Amino acid sequence: MSLGLIRSDYLLNSDSNGRITGIKQVENNTIASSFGGLAPVVRELHEFVLERLGLKGFESKLPTNQSVFTLAQGIISAWDAYANTSAVILFVVEDVTYNICDQRALEYAILEYESRLEVLRCSFKELRTCAVLKGRTLLVKNKEVAVVYYRTGYMPDQLEPEDWEVRLLMERSTAIKCPSAGLHLAGTKKVQLYLSKPGVLERFVKNEIAEQLRELFAGQHSLEMGPEGDEAVQMGIKNPDKYVLKPEREGGGNNLYGEDLKNLLEEIQDSEKRKAYILMERINPPLIPNCIIRRDNKPEITNVISELGIFGTILGNKEDIYVNNLAGHLIRSKGIDTAECGIAAGFGALDSPFFE
Description:
Elements: E1 2-14, E2 20-29, H1 39-52, H2 67-82, E3 88-93, H3 100-113, E4 119-123, H4 124-130, E5 131-134, E6 137-140, E7 143-150, H5 163-172, E8 176-178, H6 181-186, H7 189-195, H8 207-214, E9 220-222, H9 227-238, E10 243-247, H10 258-268, E11 277-281, E12 288-290, E13 302-316, E14 321-335, E15 349-351
Parallel strand pairs: 3-4, 3-7, 7-8
Antiparallel strand pairs: 1-2, 1-13, 5-6, 6-7, 9-11, 10-11, 12-13, 13-14, 14-15
Helix pairs in contact: 2-3, 4-5, 9-10
């Protein structure tokens, strides 16, 4: 059984005349999908600011957001499915955690729902010496683990060579992983590319639903060796501003645009290295006036691009899906001078949707 706390990210798309033509998916995050704990707090902050400005009634235009509680319920559903009330939930975290408030908010929401629960926080470094298998039961600090929730381990520099043994040990256990190795890989760019191909989604959903989902996908192109990949490389080189070059990396700051995209494709066009990337058609979101608050910067109104994240929880195995719920939302806004929208990477800011 595997648990997913998933966030799917979207941008509004517009044509050359600035007319909004729909919404397009940026990516699907299946590991360490962050800010579900902070998004409701940002909504409360914006409601407070509106009230202080005397704009009464405007708070109704801010949709309610219970993401931290619905995500907590997802973890508790996995704990319930494990069926041992004395087992603990393990948060696998960085050696130094910068996004601690988001993680703690989720932890405390879990404890609000189920006070009997114990949540352990351990880094991979700590787990090297305190995680063992007894049969297939995972023990950490001599406590049986029901759910392993990863908040790290999605970037190469987050794992030392010996940490892969720890990851394998936990994967082999009966503890419910969030995510399992399979679900982690399901969030990769190559899988996103594969799902966009005709006939693939139809294996999982009805044809009419597959057509609706496919409308959300931006055009994606493989860079595998061969004529199709060669053509995609030339498309990127000739029109670099129309595409994004995406590697298999998470955490923000990894994608290439414009001249950087062109230069790298020219460098690797005849190399096997190009297979590590996909070429995605660039989404053209509308610009929205806003004010991003940054430390040591004077607030000022500027044009921003806003990215919508939709959280979901899913619990299941090969045979059945036991939980499949919508779990709240997130808005991240960035200035037009940066192509990325990663908050932790320093490119954007948390925001709230405002319905007129």
